[in-house]
Hints:
alpha/beta; two-stranded antiparallel sheet; 13 helices; about 20% strand; globular; binds nicotinamide-adenine-dinucleotide; binds glycine
Amino acid sequence: MSSLHKILDVELGNKSYPIYIGSKLLSNKSYLENHISGKQVMIITNSTIAPLYLDKVKKLLEKFIVEVTILPDGEKYKTLETTKTIFDALLEAQFDRSATLIALGGGVIGDITGFAAASYQRGINFIQIPTTLLSQVDSSVGGKTGVNHELGKNMIGAFHQPEAVIIDVDTLETLNDREFSAGMAEVIKYGFLGNIGFLAMLEKNIDAIMSRDKNLIIEAVYQSCEDKAKVVAEDEFEKGKRALLNLGHTFGHGIENVLGYGTYLHGEAISIGMYMAAKLSELEGHLKLEDVERVKNILIKAKLPTSIDGKVTSEELIKAMSIDKKAIDGNIRLVLLQNLGDSYLSDDYSSDNFYQVISIFSK
Ligand code: NAD
Ligand code: GLY
């Protein structure tokens, strides 16, 4: 028996697709079957997730020709070399353009699989089964796919929308607390950047969510996906509004870059970055001090960092932020907060205020 709690649609004309959110979804064949048009299916997963969920997913696909590619686990394998192993497997299995790829895993698996689907024989279908909180509320929705290059993260990729996203929150039962918190950074982000009601709901329920109350998690995942789906529907290719989803990311990427990727999980770096963005928004005269405290408090309750633990100098941080892909003509474009729940993009904030924030957070 499966229990579907919610369905959302990402409205993109003939590329629209559903997001199914609930518990026990991986016990029901219909979610997958309804979105696979050919006979050939390849599940892409990794060595950590395969022992946990591969058999369960394979069982749903008995009427298809199913191949499996198990990748090594880790961001360092989000590369073109790894993508080639998927192409090799697809060609060896003589999969044609009617094939469907299934991404079973976190954001790394989702991004690589989506990119392989975007490029194999000029584009085939894929379905996302995200298994981390971060991938359930962010990376599986919206069609950004890609891999890293040694000169930059996510530098090779394509926009390619999935046929469906199947979010079974039961998969989070095996996710460790640190990864869960990292996902919560992205959940809380939606509250800060555009949804004050959601922020209030999270503040009220944060302890229960951190204790893994399933109904509240479903509600939080639903609300996050709904907010993201709205933005993606308005601005699929990030010509404008979609960039607001990067609240805290330019600061966060700078921190990740200076300390070395992997020191902080992405969500942890984004947590510090969001707090820095809130501080700058206060210095710019928008947020009140109590708003900035609200930002800090909920991040701390979600067991996320709000200061940099490690040696990062101002110069290093500014340099790393300037080469982040959101910098245009040398100006660092940032997402700032007009109010809690109301964000905007800016590259004309006071540089004194910016340097002040950098100096507060660096050593
Ligand atoms: P991840 O995919 O590396 O997963 C984190 C860890 O959890 C891995 O070790 C993974 O094997 C393990 N794991 C996954 N599901 C599990 C489960 N249910 N139980 C136990 N362990 C499990 O990391 P992530 O945080 O999911 O994703 C980060 C990636 O997502 C980055 O590469 C980032 O660039 C990308 N991303 C993409 C977008 C987008 O829009 N495409 C948005 C945000 C992030
Ligand atoms: N993670 C930001 C986006 O999908 O646009």
